[in-house]
Amino acid sequence: MAPKIRKLNLTQVSEWDDGQLCRKDDYLATEEPLEIRIGDQPLSVTMRTPGHDLELAAGFLFTEGLVQSREQIISLQPVVPSEGADSGNVVQATLTREATPDLAKMRRHFFASSSCGICGKASIDAVRSRLLTAPNSDFRFDPELLVGLPEVLRSAQDVFRRTGGLHAAALFDSKGALQVLREDIGRHNAVDKVIGWALMIGRVPLTESVLLVSGRGGFEIVQKSIAAGIPIVASVSAPSSLAVQLARELRLTLIGFLRGRRFVIYSGDERIGKSQHQDGG
Length: 281
Fold this sequence. Notes:
This protein is an alpha/beta fold. It has two domains: 32-122, Ubiquitin-like (UB roll) (Roll), CATH 3.10.20.10; 143-279, Cytidine Deaminase, domain 2. The protein is 26% helix and 29% strand. The protein has a six-stranded mixed sheet with strand order 8-7-9-10-11-12, with helices on both faces. Helix 9 links the parallel strand 10 and strand 11. Helix 7 runs parallel beside helix 8.
């Protein structure tokens, strides 16, 4: 029987409210390390919220350029839990011979935390060297659909509503329908889970999709989205300067401050088409 996944932890806290102090129960988002191995060799450790770990591992392997297709992943499975404190927190990948990396040279690049992600690779030169191609230039998305996506995201965030402590990434199709949503304590992990989901069911590249993320739109999110062929990335907060630079260089549409009926387009405004109201329809 598979172990129960704990995304929430119940704890006791003291709450001060208008001069009154009281004890109450509160929920915390779970944060645990996940080790990704290739064969028996460790590749990466990332702090994540348990759940959808195989998608996270698949998305990580793909967006970081270790595999170029689902077919290069022979198997992906959790290591059989032991009695240790970290039991169940290991995923083992078996890759085809041409995809298996030289881990001795790569290991220093792949130690991540929920706050900064792959810190040793955060440069445009590293992304440029992978020869990633620009996303679908013909894709268009109605701004009237775009402004409605944050509410869909919020209403679908199960754990966030109880903790306030998780990031979310959601994939929408060309008509604004929600395809998949994943939550994680690390926003880059949530994106990897979404892309890993698509990779494992054969839907990459995501040439007619919009990715919406809670929080800010950072460099890693742009890099991972370009790797997956996503043409539009939107966030409810601000992007970073490096994210904007990369989006402009590789012609991804990057949107920030998507709140209410307002948003800011930092790159690729040609993909945001006229709405039906603007067309007079």
